[in-house]
Amino acid sequence: MKYTIKDIALLANVGKSTVSRVLNGDPNVSEETRQRIQEIIHKVGFEPNRIARAMRGATDPVVGVIVTRLNSVAESQTLSAILHELYQKGITPLIVESQFQPELVLKHFQLFKQRQVDGIILFGFSQLNLDILKSWKGSLVTIARSYPEISSVVYDDEKAVEALMFKLYMQGHREIAYLGVKDSDETTGKLRNQSYLNFCQKYELSPNLIKVELGAESGYQNVGFLFEKPISALLCASSSLAVGALKYMQEIGQIRPLACIGKNEMLQFVVPKLMSLDFGYPQAGKGAVALLLQQLDGNKNIEQIRVTFGQL
Q: Which of 32, 34, 156, 239 has the most crowded CB, counting CB atoms within 10 A?
């Protein structure tokens, strides 16, 4: 159980303000009351909310942020929104990378514990299991992947693919190829791949799908396999894959209408007719900060925010 100042006050039979004064070293508290409160704090393992104390000038609040890759176009958009929200609240971010390695997440947890961060916002990934996340005893919010008993912000992967496919279908395309990500990636990969296949089955289209590693180079190296079949349009699971696909199509002189999930300013500049959708990355960042601040304010409810994507 994560205790709050209110819980400590109830156990000690005093007001919240008295507990706060003890935490802040206020001399205007009787020694008997101080000792009783400190004994309860020690017994239950209470860790004071540094953000709440910072509001009173006691210390600077810090929030740890664990991204998978700092060079990810998608995550950088979400991270930018997170930083904007944290700075607005006077909170200092401590940013690290997981590089899709669970063992690195554990090391970052140790670092954050040493630095006494107030809470963590973590970009989830398939290899990261619930046991590792539950080893962190403080406030935690995940992005992109949901876990039982942990508040999270998730994207609408399946409907995003469906929306793009329907747009291409309504434009008359019937040979829509899909450059996807390997199923080991639960969201960008498995969920989006299945959505593509479901659409093909529903509208009686012949699937033309390949699953690759996430990244422009992987897209460039593998998209050629899709061109072994007729293609009227190409849909990519991410904007980075679309960058690689575009390079390949330019080199072989077979440009096809291109669509992808997520906005990429440079790609849109190069491909004026690029079909893409705003996947809600900035909204995810704002939502994650809001959920974390609720936890730090004593709200113990587990919540999930599903971000809706923008109009095509």
A: 239
